[in-house]
């Protein structure tokens, strides 16, 4: 076990595009477990930002960023990371706005990140009966390619949106690359952070799919976004060939130990 010798500070970033009432519900759930929260409303036209704006008056740790145009999930998270870095946060938990993730798992994820500040903390989704079969089976293909691109280095799920990123390395990668702004964001950043030396730590967590009549939203377009992911994996695979010696060395690293470290004063 390695414990941090410098202060680590975590925030939660919630990117949102036309999430409707689920955005307010998600923010309230997150605030029950963590108070430093940045909501990035990414060109939404559904008025969902207004409820969050009202909440900021009573929640000093809640911040709202409204972007005039839709830049994609990666663009929204990048805006949140820039703001978080300016405020001396060192790590950011990215938490989707659509009610899929379990907010009560945030402290567990953050504690693992505090114990291993160098790591990429990855949510490993546990699917229930409400999960669309097409999406459950389809993501296995993308995960197989992500594992090939990291030489089976331990990324259990390359698409799941509940993660904790070390902000400095994540910003360096996102600001130095083309792409990674839309549905290729989660895959691109996970694989490239692994390449940069961040060891992955997978934590199981349930995922919930809300039906449309219950406010559930999805902006995934099967043809458009699957083509984007195919192009993404092709580019990553070509780069990975040049990194084989490094990837083989990473395979020899010791597995991470998730036992707790003593609490620090700058966690929230």
Produce a short descriptive summary.
By secondary structure, this protein is an alpha/beta fold.
What's the arrangement of secondary structure elements?
Blueprint: E1 10-16, H1 21-31, E2 37-42, H2 49-56, E3 62-67, H3 72-86, E4 91-94, H4 106-115, E5 120-127, H5 133-149, E6 163-166, H6 167-175, H7 185-195, E7 200-207, H8 222-241, H9 244-250
Parallel strand pairs: 1-2, 1-4, 2-3, 5-7
Antiparallel strand pairs: 4-6, 5-6
Helix pairs in contact: 3-6, 5-8
Polypeptide structure, described:
- It contains 9 helices and 7 strands.
- With 268 residues, it is of the alpha/beta class.
- It has one domain: Spore Coat Polysaccharide Biosynthesis Protein SpsA, Chain A.
- A 7-stranded mixed sheet has the order 3-2-1-4-6-5-7, sandwiched between helices.
- α2 links the parallel β2 (37-42) and β3.
- α3 crosses α6 (167-175) and α5 runs parallel beside α8.
- The longest helix has 20 residues, at 222-241.
- The radius of gyration is 18 Å and the shape is globular.
- It starts with 9 loop residues before the first strand and ends in an 18-residue tail after the last helix.
- The mean pLDDT is 89.
């Amino acid at each position: 076990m390695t414990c941090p010798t410098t202060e680590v500070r975590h925030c939660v970033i919630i990117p949102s595009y036309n999430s409707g009432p689920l955005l307010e519900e998600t923010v309230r759930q997150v605030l029950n477990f963590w108070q430093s929260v940045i909501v990035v409303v990414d060109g939404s036209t559904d008025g969902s930002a207004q409820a969050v704006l009202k909440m900021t008056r009573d929640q000093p740790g809640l911040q709202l960023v409204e972007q005039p145009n839709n830049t994609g999930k990666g663009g929204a998270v990048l805006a949140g990371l820039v703001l978080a870095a300016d405020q001396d946060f060192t790590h950011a938990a990215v938490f989707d706005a659509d009610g899929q993730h379990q907010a009560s798992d945030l402290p567990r994820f953050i504690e693992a990140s505090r114990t291993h500040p160098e790591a990429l903390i990855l949510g490993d989704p546990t699917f229930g009966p409400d999960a669309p079969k097409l999406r459950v089976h389809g993501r296995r293909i993308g995960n197989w390619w992500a594992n090939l691109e990291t030489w089976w280095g331990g990324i259990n799920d390359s698409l799941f949106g509940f993660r904790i990123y070390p902000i400095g390395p994540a910003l360096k990668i996102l600001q130095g690359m083309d792409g990674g702004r839309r549905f290729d964001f989660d895959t691109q950043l996970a694989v490239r952070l692994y390449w940069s030396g961040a060891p992955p730590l997978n934590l199981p967590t349930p995922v919930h799919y809300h039906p449309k009549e219950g406010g559930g939203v999805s902006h995934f377009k099967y043809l458009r976004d699957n083509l984007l992911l195919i192009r993404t994996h092709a580019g990553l695979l070509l780069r990975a060939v040049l990194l084989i010696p490094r990837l083989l060395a990473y395979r020899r690293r010791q597995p991470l130990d998730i036992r707790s470290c003593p609490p620090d004063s700058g966690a929230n």
